[in-house]
Amino acid sequence: MLHLSLADPLRRDLDRAVYTVDRMRGLWGDVADDALQRADRVPALRALAGRTEPAAVLARLFVLGDGVAAADVAAALPTTGAAAAVEGGLLAAGDDGLLRGAIDLRPYSVVDALGVTAWWIASDLGELATGQALRTDHVLGIGGASATLSGLMLPDRARRVLDLGTGCGIQALHASRFADQVVATDISERALDFGRFNAALNGVDTIEFRLGSLYEPVAGERFDRIVSNPPFVITPRRGGVPEYEYRDGGMVGDALVAAVVAGAAEHLEPGGVAQLLGNWEYRDGVDGLNRAAAWAQDARLEFWMIERERIDPARYAETWIRDGGTKPGGPEWEPLVGAWLDDFAERGVDEIGFGYVLLRRPAEGAPTHQPLQRAERIPEALGENPAGLGPHLSAVLAAHDALAALGPDGVDDHAFRVAPDVTEQRSHWPGEESPSALVLRQGGGFGRSLQVSPAVSAAVGASDGELALGVLAGAIAQLLEQDERAVLIEIRAETIELIHCGLVVP
Ligand SMILES: C[S@@+](CC[C@H](N)C(=O)[O-])C[C@H]1O[C@@H](n2cnc3c(N)ncnc32)[C@H](O)[C@@H]1O
């Protein structure tokens, strides 16, 4: 258990040592930094071998799992003190007389819609530092999925936010930037310990940590926003298969994600939004993305489901068995792959989708004729989003609502604008004057590419917020010598789609 009383002195020591992301990269260099991303610590260990300046000592202890002499630790932690750090759960004394980190503690910096922020995040040491498989109650640090979800968060102000399955508290810290109050829950007391420590270490006092499964700790409460990177990894319920708390909610198949979606309805304020990551199974020919959309429909929530990738059961099994520290070739590998494949076969699963889920409880008095109900596949690389996708999602939600407010009859009288990050690519057959394909490209957002007709291209190009869509369509039909009504119907439908993709703005 980490002693919360250490948070203040430790912050002073980390600050004084300039223990930052840039400093660490500077200390061990780009090659070692890249090697660390691939879980190889050797170049970094070599770069820092024998280095005793405080930032180097901290990185050796808390990132690399290196042993450091007590005198050097004392010099790096003058306010905290080496003995207090051992007693308070930050360090452990080895048989070799050296001190080592008992936790992972590293700087983290990010740019979001509110600007740059930097924190220090404590979590359990990973395999890189311990050289051992993870314990089943391992508390995860900031991984790829954590960064994906925090980047997706709507940056708009909120009164209360729930972070379900908070782990080391990273989503709660992000949410605290735009929320008055955050409730962070987890089934793991150990995770909550880390979460509380991280909040205190970073001087954030607006997060309340609560123990319990799913929505139990917030029974009867509602939130403006729910965020969750839930333990969505599908795991066979069979003897011999380790159940890692950090990634596995203990249910069969994708039932955990379905439960988080179903429960959101009861815990969102009207107009409130839930954002989560998830897996969904394609079963016996039933489309997995449609199954996920049906969870939201059953809960009477608006939804925007985005499938980013889809993989087969064998690749899924390999990914998550490796993630737990088991490598091909060992005695456990084949039985584990077999267990995963049997489990998927029992439910007729032939593919597993991964993606982003956005749910919204309809606002009171909101127009009901055009609810947000989108389920789409976007496997492409994302566009340029320095502050994450959150601002884009927020803008598209606002655009959807503005469109709904216009009503079915108001669209033709409205003047739209092309978004500033849209460019057009024209492809010509050699020697041909008119293009054979027109593609609109989005620089930010999801980096979409959408092929359009010459009429739609002309309408988008002329959408400068001055001319109503109906007037534009009439002029374009005349120019192209096409039927006016047919051109209007096409331009209207495509403009609505482009608004939902963020390429055109009401
Ligand atoms: C994938 S981790 C996410 C951690 C962190 N929020 C992040 O984004 O990096 C999932 C977290 O959910 C917790 N968890 C597992 N089962 C749970 C349950 N039934 N209810 C609430 N949390 C649970 C785990 O302990 C773990 O901390």
Relevant terms:
globular; binds S-adenosylmethionine; 22% strand; 18 helices; 8-stranded mixed sheet; Outer Surface Protein A, domain 3; 3 domains; 3-stranded antiparallel sheet; single chain
Description:
It is a single chain. The protein is an alpha/beta fold and 506 residues long. It folds into 3 domains: 4-102, no CATH class; 130-402, Vaccinia Virus protein VP39 (Rossmann fold); 404-505, Outer Surface Protein A, domain 3 (Alpha-Beta Complex), CATH 3.90.930. The chain contains 18 helices and 17 strands. The strands form 5 sheets. The protein has an 8-stranded mixed β-sheet with strand order 7-6-5-8-9-11-10-12, with helices on both faces. Strands 14-15-16 form a 3-stranded antiparallel β-sheet. Helix 10 (189-201) links the parallel strand 6 and strand 7 (207-211). The radius of gyration is 26 Å and the shape is globular. The termini are far apart. The structure holds S-adenosylmethionine. S-adenosylmethionine binds next to helix 8, helix 9 and strand 6.
What's the helix and strand layout?
Layout: H1 7-16, H2 21-37, H3 42-48, H4 54-62, H5 70-76, H6 82-87, E1 91-93, E2 99-101, E3 104-112, E4 115-123, H7 127-130, H8 144-152, E5 158-164, H9 170-175, E6 179-186, H10 189-201, E7 207-211, E8 223-228, H11 255-267, E9 268-283, H12 288-298, E10 302-311, H13 313-323, H14 333-346, E11 349-360, E12 373-377, H15 390-406, E13 417-418, E14 422-427, E15 437-442, E16 449-452, H16 454-461, H17 469-480, H18 484-501, E17 504-505
Parallel strand pairs: 5-6, 5-8, 6-7, 8-9, 10-12
Antiparallel strand pairs: 1-2, 3-4, 9-11, 10-11, 13-17, 14-15, 15-16
Helix pairs in contact: 1-10, 2-3, 4-5, 13-14, 15-18, 16-18, 17-18
